[in-house]
Automatic annotation (TrEMBL):
<dbReference type="Pfam" id="PF04464">
    <property type="entry name" value="Glyphos_transf"/>
</dbReference>
<dbReference type="GO" id="GO:0016020">
    <property type="term" value="C:membrane"/>
</dbReference>
<protein>
    <recommendedName>
        <fullName>Glycosyltransferase 2-like domain-containing protein</fullName>
    </recommendedName>
</protein>
<dbReference type="InterPro" id="IPR007554">
    <property type="entry name" value="Glycerophosphate_synth"/>
</dbReference>
<feature type="domain" description="Glycosyltransferase 2-like">
    <location>
        <begin position="20"/>
        <end position="119"/>
    </location>
</feature>
<dbReference type="InterPro" id="IPR001173">
    <property type="entry name" value="Glyco_trans_2-like"/>
</dbReference>
<dbReference type="InterPro" id="IPR043148">
    <property type="entry name" value="TagF_C"/>
</dbReference>
<dbReference type="InterPro" id="IPR029044">
    <property type="entry name" value="Nucleotide-diphossugar_trans"/>
</dbReference>
<dbReference type="GO" id="GO:0047355">
    <property type="term" value="F:CDP-glycerol glycerophosphotransferase activity"/>
</dbReference>
<dbReference type="Pfam" id="PF00535">
    <property type="entry name" value="Glycos_transf_2"/>
</dbReference>
Amino acid sequence: MSDFPLVTVGLISNGLVNDIIYTMNTILLQDYPNIEIIVSFDSQDNICIADIINAINANRSENIKNITIHEFEVRKGLGGNIKYIVEHASGEYITFLLAEDAYYDKTVLLSFINLFEQHSGTPSAAIMKTAIFHSRTNSWEVLNAEQNSLNTGLLSPSICYRRDILISLNLLDSGIIDIHRKILDYIEKNRYLILTSDQFIGIKHTVSFDHHPYHFSEIYKDKEQNRALEIIDESATVNFESKMNYTSFLKFSSIIGACIHLTSHTQFYKDVVSEQINKVIQRIDDELEFIVKRKDGYWRMTDSNIIYLNLLKELRALLCISFRREQLFKLMALARDRAKGVYSIVFFVHEYSVWPSLQSVYEASLKRYDYRPRLVYIPFFHELSSFDHEKEIAHYVSAGYNIIRYEDYNLSEEGPDIVVYVKPYESIPEKFRVKEVNQTGCKCIYIPYGMETANTPEGTSYQCYSPMQYLAWRILAYSQDYYSKIQQYTYTHGRNYLKIGHPRMDLRFEDMCEDTSYRMIKTKARNRKIVMWNTHFTLSDGDNWGTYLLFGDTVLNYFENNKDLFLLWRPHPLFFKALAQAENKDITEVMDWFAELGESDHILIDRFPTYLAAFAASDALLTDITSFVPEYAVRNKKMLITKKPGSTPPLFNNLNSILNVTESKDDIILFLDDVLHGMDYFPNRIQEIYQELYLSDSETVAQRLLNYIDAEIKKECEFTSSIIR
């Protein structure tokens, strides 16, 4: 086979999700060389997306060309998920798997395509043998290809379709039963176009011999709604001072407002109003179902969720009887009394050096009447890290920030509307990972601590494939190049990314003249030109951006021979241990060497809490490919980026022609001469950089983000648009 056509595998949850990771792995381990995977499900199915993403990251290989994970916020059932997959598939062929079904071995997709390729003409589908396990009778049934088409229909793991055939059947306008009927009718009428083989391909599970899989979602939905309605009143477990968060209040006020609105329309017939009230009850049932899911995570059900749940139950009880309008107003007043009047926004912070990524957003929220911000220090762990967390907390306190230690913070009691992350990694205490926090129902926002500038395999894995990139409600994209990369690689294809720039850019005009660190730098430099030098810690492994072992001697020798130029060396915080490993030295020996170097009149080792003083004090930057590149580029100062020969170039395709990048020691010397003598071999191109980074002169990134959050939450909470006006 010269060309391998793309095959789309659609993985659909049917509410039974215990073995979905096993199902996913049977897809990922297929040996067919050209596969697309589309996972589609309803949010009510309560699938653990983080586990799916971790399975993908562990087993994905180059033959998986594209993966999309899609979640419907409202229940669409099997029909809606099938339609989504067919509509968005790029493959020439499509095959479907329900959660808990599986492929028999790794050759399934190749066997399908071989069957198509071995026949002339344009066959419509290929059907093979399936084994069905009936859980109620604890027995197996083997169906040959002929039986398979009639008994399992569209969603059998042993049927593969040409995509254009499914499109031609107008499945996009059908419900699941109609879809199933159309497929069976087509197979019956076009037997000559259906390929069959008795090769053993699929394993299927079903609740009984008489139940087809499309019944599962309805059974599951009924079960969950019953659970929601049977929950006992849990108000006794809520702290008396606890309040419902503002998002829940907006939802509740929108729902009850619709009811109040309806009762004012006495000109409508009673049965019309009753129909609309039933819509409200259905919305309440949907909300109750969502809230029940919150009980499954580490934080269980937050106080805010419990208050919201009991208010909804009270409203539902009223709507099911003959109620008076005054009762609705009374319940609305109770909700207002039990609710926060502003958004509770919590920032999860780490070492103080990454604080600039959140600083402008936090400070802008402090100035607004509709936000109440809080800082919670979460320790971040890394094998090369030497962070003293008590010292890092002290930096925040010294800067005037009120900060809560993670061990003193109870998210269940707080029930925040929004949690802001600054790192995507899982190396933090488990209960604060995005998987657990997202489970509580709050909106997680991820602001990358660095403005990533390279497209390396390891960098891409952290920037695109971790649970954070899927589970976060919104993620800030800081440039068009970056967003294009996100659209290509992430499992959401960028749908939860917000193109408004990076908050670190808000600090580009920050006045640092009175800052203690700034004055210390300027004092030691004694009016000499200052070159900031930033060395990355990946000297050999991982992203492999660090060039110190190649160019370190060149840089240090230059400053030793040209003491009229001042070196401000700010290594990455993980650089010290990385250098000790690379040179097979004890960390104490490395730190002693740095201390001795820092005693030189023409060198200062920058270990100040934040890099902003160095940015302000320096005249130029010599740097590896790091997140400093775009942030320094907008300051209209000279910059040279060093890279290893043959390594991945910076991410900015739109800026590569104007960013100064080198692999040469001679270019480094030329650049330093330029700074020392004021020559202009490396001109800056500030206007092009501004355009690439979404910068606005009229509004800060922080202001744009906070305005967006408020508008978007209110839009999501709106319910009255579907009710008679």
